[in-house]
């Protein structure tokens, strides 16, 4: 399992986590290349279907990350995301996915260092978890 490199899809809010990713890049902070960022205007617009689809079609892990509670540019989008992710985590095992394959974080626009750390930690966690078995079944 040592040569397994996970693919991680990260839905990141335009105003906070995407800006933090940009800051990490301009600050020349390194983080694993395994993470594919998908910029959304707010975590509140991440439909649970997007997450299930990502896991079914090849992702080994999914991250949803946005503004800290109270900082959402659309007032309460991140609170909606938090409720949805909590419920989705409860039903993920019914689809054959471990709950640890989905994570929600808050990373502010000035947290470039934290962004890089979270990406490294997430990739290490998913690498330890191993390949997404449900994805492998879909391929076969
Ligand atoms: S605008 Fe960033 S989470 Fe809503």
TrEMBL record:
Keywords: Iron, Iron-sulfur, Metal-binding, Oxidoreductase. The keyword Metal-binding applies. Coiled coil: none annotated. Residues 8-130 form the F420-non-reducing hydrogenase iron-sulfur subunit D domain. The keyword Phosphoprotein does not apply. InterPro entries: MvhD/FlpD. One of its GO terms (molecular function) is metal ion binding. This is Methyl-viologen-reducing hydrogenase family protein. It comes from Desulfonema magnum.
């Amino acid at each position: 399992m040592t040569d397994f490199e996970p693919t991680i899809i990260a839905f990141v809010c335009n105003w906070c986590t995407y800006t933090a990713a940009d800051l990490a890049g301009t600050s020349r902070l390194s983080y694993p290349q395994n993470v594919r960022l998908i910029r959304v205007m707010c975590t509140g617009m991440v439909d649970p279907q997007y997450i299930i689809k990502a896991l079914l079609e090849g992702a080994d892990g999914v991250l949803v990350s946005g503004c800290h509670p109270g900082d959402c540019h659309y007032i309460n989008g991140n609170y909606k995301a938090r409720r949805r992710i909590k419920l989705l985590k409860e039903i993920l095992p019914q689809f054959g996915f471990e709950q640890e394959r989905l994570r929600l974080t808050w990373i502010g626009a000035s947290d470039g260092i934290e962004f890089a750390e979270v990406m490294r930690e997430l990739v290490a966690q998913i690498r330890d978890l191993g390949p997404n078995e449900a994805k492998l079944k879909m391929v076969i």
